[in-house]
Amino acid sequence: MAERKHPGASENNLPTGINERNSSQYGDKRAAHPSGKEGYGRLAQFLRGLAFTVYFTSCHVSTDRWLPLRIVVTQFIGAPLYFVNREWFYAYMAMTKRSFALTTTVMTQIWGPTTIRISGDDSVAGQIRPTRDGGVQFSFPERLVLIANHQIYTDWLYLWWIGYANQPAMHGHLYIILKESLRYIPLIGTGMMFYGFIFMSRKMATDQPRLAYRLNKLKKRKTDPSGKSYLDPMWLLLFPEGTNLSGNGRRKSGQWAEKNGLKDPEHVMLPRSTGSFFCLNELRGTVDYVYDCTVAYEGIPRGKYGEEIFGLSSTYFQGRSPKSINFYWRRFRMTDIPLDDQKQFDLWLREQWYKKDELMEEYITTGRFPPMAGADFDFVETSVRTRQPWEILQVFTVVGICGLVWNNVRKLLNAASKGLGF
């Protein structure tokens, strides 16, 4: 639903979900969790974990216990299309991306429900609207670069859901730049490779050829049957900070700021500009806008880090997911970004991160980002959920059809062998 007023700070002048004891003592395991007491006892947590595992494996694992993850199986089934028709292959892999996004959306809807509160400045006015059923609809373009501060490991999950809530839906066309180490996670790494995600070692000499190759695919123009040129849909997600906010990352950011005589932001880390500069230059002429999202989680006290508070167990098993996840959106024209000079771009990106730091300070002080510009509502409030409950059945389609076909073929072969007396 749309929130009609700016509630400001809570009674104790701290954001909702943070009381004085939390803000001063959090980090001590005995201190109160910002999302309240555990919603479930040990037995209930075990049962929730078991149900979570059954759900996740039923969406990702075939009925044959020896087969790997269901979505990865689906990817392997479609892999030969790469050698038959590249367009069919990429369309097929986009379908598997949609399946994964639906899986994580339903997973969050059931086990880690949370309020999503959204606003933005004048640059995105009219592009974020509440729907009659209490949802949200974004009207972002089919091709964009998305940058965001990195609070916790699951940021990508909520931002992927934004693609699902967009019109047209873009959850099948999201590409993420990831750390190289994630490539080697068994099966999951393979799945991300099929998705076309880009892995970086943080050594530009190694990364640049790889980035150029992948981005060249994403900017390749194609021709439809009528002879009209077009570009495939693409949302490229970058986290310029390079990693999620943590004590170690915060220290390194502070040391870099001191070494280079820079202002050290309090709530974010200084961004790395080299990779972003290269990506935007490679995509120049094929992308019109960069969309920036500032992300804040309710309940993280000043000076603490989300990874310490909202882990997998807390969010999905203990019933202590963030009370709200807050997004503030801005948009920049590519033509307004200084892409002809590395130093000027570095300054521009750092200035945007200082503005993020100011936004985070406002959120921590008042419990809210600035209200939605150019709208008759201050915020859109909704939750991570699918439009229809039966959408999750799409995950089972390919493997189910293949299983049905194989079962019928096997019956025919058995019948034929019996008829021939074998």
From TrEMBL:
Residues 27-36 have a biased composition (Basic and acidic residues). Keywords: Acyltransferase, Transferase. Residues 10-26 have a biased composition (Polar residues). One of its GO terms (biological process) is phosphatidylinositol acyl-chain remodeling. Residues 1-36 are annotated as: Disordered. GO terms for molecular function: acyltransferase activity. InterPro entries: Acyltransf_C, Plipid/glycerol_acylTrfase. GO terms for cellular component: endoplasmic reticulum. Pfam families: Acyltransf_C, Acyltransferase. The keyword Acyltransferase applies. Residues 144-277 form the Phospholipid/glycerol acyltransferase domain. Belongs to the 1-acyl-sn-glycerol-3-phosphate acyltransferase family. This is 1-acyl-sn-glycerol-3-phosphate acyltransferase 2. It comes from Purpureocillium lavendulum.
